[in-house]
Design brief:
About 25% of the residues lie in helices and about 40% in strands. It is an alpha+beta fold and about 150 residues long.
């Protein structure tokens, strides 16, 4: 009779250990998922504002900034059109982004000219490698001009 009791006790213990191991596995999987989600939501890039140009009516501004996403990528130059009171962006430019032909400060030479309250001209060097060039943002029409020579 005591051997039957020992077997039942052993089986109960094994069931408990199996349930504990399963719960521990699920808990570790959930922890790994949470850590992965947190790491994926962290933007490794940083933006460094260079200059901004206000629209003639003062309702918008074009902000030129350098974006650095870490050691494995190069710097890129971005332009965002923002409303007058809008905070400086933490993401990439909403109008223009390019890399190449950087000056010693690491910024692609650009010339930003407002041609009206709702229109802007972005001039850039010919050799620039353009990643983004939108034609309209926040109701502002965007035109582009490529310089004839290597610079502006």
């Amino acid at each position: 009779m005591s051997s039957l009791f020992s077997i039942r006790l052993l089986l109960s213990f094994l069931k408990f250990m199996a349930a504990f191991a399963g719960a521990a596995f699920v808990g570790l999987a959930m922890l790994a998922g949470i850590v992965g989600w947190l790491l994926s939501s962290v933007d490794p890039c940083g933006n460094d504002p260079q200059y901004e140009v206000a629209s003639p009516d003062g309702r918008h501004r074009a902000v030129v900034f350098q974006r650095d996403c870490g050691a494995t990528t190069g710097f890129s130059t971005h332009v965002s059109i923002l409303t007058a009171g809008e905070a400086f962006p933490s993401e990439g430019g909403n109008v223009f982004a390019a890399d190449s032909m950087r000056d010693p400060n690491g910024v692609l030479p650009l010339r930003i000219t407002w041609t009206g309250d709702r229109s802007i001209l972005i001039q850039r060097a010919r050799a620039a490698k353009v990643f983004r060039s939108e034609s309209r943002v926040l109701g502002v029409a965007v035109d582009y001009k490529v310089a004839a020579g290597p610079g502006l």
